[in-house]
Amino acid sequence: MPDAVPDPAAPLDAKLPPVIGPILFARGSGEEACRLAALAVVPSWNRPPPLVAEGGEVAPARLAELFGWTAWGYDFALPARPDASYEFAGRCFPVRTDLSGDVALAFVSCNGQETGDEARQAESRNLMWRRLQGEHERRPFALLLHGGDQLYADEALDSHPEVARWAKLPPRRRPGIRWTPEMEEAVRRWFAARYLTLLAEPAMAALLSQVPSLMMWDDHDIMDGWGSHPSGVQESPVGEGIFRIAREMFALFQQGVAPDAVPPLAPDPAGVSLTLGAAFPGFRVVAPDLRSERTQTRVMGPNGWQSFERLLRTVREGERVLVVSSVPALGPRLSLLERILDRLLGTQRHEDDLRDQWQSFAHRLEWQRFLSCLAKLATARGAAVTALSGEIHLAARGTMPLGPGGVLHQLVASGISHPAPSRFYARALGGLARLGHRPLKDMPIRMHPLPGRRGLYAAERNYLVLTREAGRWTAEWELEAGGRTPPLTI
Fold first, then answer.
1. pLDDT tens for residues 128-137?
2. Taking the model in full, what pTM does it have?
3. What is the CA radius of gyration of the chain?
4. Residue 388's beta-bridge partner residues?
């Protein structure tokens, strides 16, 4: 007997507060105003809470129905002044909207773990979120950048017996499994429940209601290694079904738009690539989508490259550009390790992890194209380029010269809640990094210790803070045990 289709109107089983949100999303800003969106989710029998901004109450838009809950979206703007705020459900939320002078930004990634994330004790799991919120209370952040794996969806594969069976089959046999309405319902319910549970966490909710977020996804927001698996996995009916649901939930919960909508910061009108870009006074953020079009032999497809290069053409002379590359743009010669393991072991369980990286031998030409785009930006526009990345569950930094006087700074902060890997892993990666790498002529990559540290990789949970004071940009890592690093000029 097939499993019964769950009633779409049945409420989720998760223990959730009566209102989830507001969650703020950045839409860019100028000298006069900061453009924002907010997301709130309430039981479907309740009216949407009122949101009042400058000029009066903001009309909510119904974005989605989710198993007895309704997601509402609010688009509004706040003036760029020190006392800016909005009111939601009768409560006042201050927002740092003036980004024209001194400003502080935060960067986080890897908010979860592969298995058992929901069962973890919140006190331990969210320690770094609480530390980040405490820092915001002392000195408000104007923007929160999320570099990928905001959700660990790996356990969605256990949400239905047939999905779990599909996940255990060899790739060549997976296309033979049908995608059924029962599987659709189970996977969608899992994603909805997990997103809502995460966003209701007090440690995150307080920050997300006051600091506008700009998010880009990575593999775990879909499933582990998405894009680096054989075509039998990704192009199978089940694989395509999981991706479609993950993309809809990403649009809703990480972009604040309807599940079938194209995010307003994405230049691809077809929504094939979710590459994003936003301008702020004196700097801009460009976040290429490294997952939607990824295969074992490419990172971005035609839509992704067109969107990425289009956004780079909008950069102004001498502007600071923060490139959110979910996987590090600079790093050790992982292609060497990849070839050794392939030769010795053939297909092995870490193959998709190594294929995920820009440094994979399968992506070398595309990696060179990516770095060449950044080098051209520095030499032709005089832009100061900084890459922000997560994914590897370590803190690290690297540099690569970008022509006369220009330097690409690669800052890695990962993860905000993912458990730190072993120190042996960090030392092994550091040893590989010391071999050096030169993907572009006369532009060698160098990995460096964090300020005040000895090893090239720090095996601690962490987040990153970027500060602009009197026009000078610095970066500081907050490490779980090691504390704050001295400021690094970038």
1. 999 999 999 9
2. 0.95
3. 22
4. 324, 411
